[in-house]
Amino acid sequence: MKKYIPYKNIRKGAVIFGLSLPLFALMMLSVIASLLVAIFSFSLGVIISVLLFNASLYMGLNRISRLLEFLQMSSGFPKIITNKKDSGINYEKD
Fold first, then answer.
1. Would you place residue 56 in the very low, low, confident or very high pLDDT band (cuts 50, 70, 90)?
2. Radius of gyration for the alpha carbons in the chain, expressed in angstroms and rounded
3. Is 23 exposed, middle or buried (0-12, 13-18, 19+ CB in 10 A)?
4. What are phi and psi of 6, to 5 degrees?
5. Measuring CA to CA, which residue among 55, 58, 63, 50 is closest to residue 27?
6. Alpha-carbon distances of 42 from 45, 52, 90, 92, rounded to whole Å
């Protein structure tokens, strides 16, 4: 029988352009802000510096996301969640 992963676990592992969802949201905020700066500035130097800033931010966030993958040893949630009372007796074989 096929076992399906709950949707919340899929959402935690979602990746867009190699970034997790929070880092991708930060990147999109930076892109929108830089577009506003580029629209209202009339200097070619400012536009080029904004493009360089976004490129360096993307590379930095990619490196951070790779480092976070190595640092995360186990998941933060238990594999089994139950409402049963714990009797303290372990029935598993070693």
1. very high
2. 22
3. buried
4. -60, 150
5. 58
6. 9, 17, 71, 70
What are the pLDDT digits (tens) for 63-88? 988 887 766 655 666 667 777 776 76
The domain spans of the chain are: 14-70
Higher pLDDT pick, 94 / 11: 11
Q: Which helix (H) or strand (E) holds 15?
A: strand 15-16
Q: Is the pLDDT of residue 14 over 80?
A: no
SS3 content of the chain, % helix, strand, coil (to 5): 55, 5, 40
CA distance 2 to 26: 37
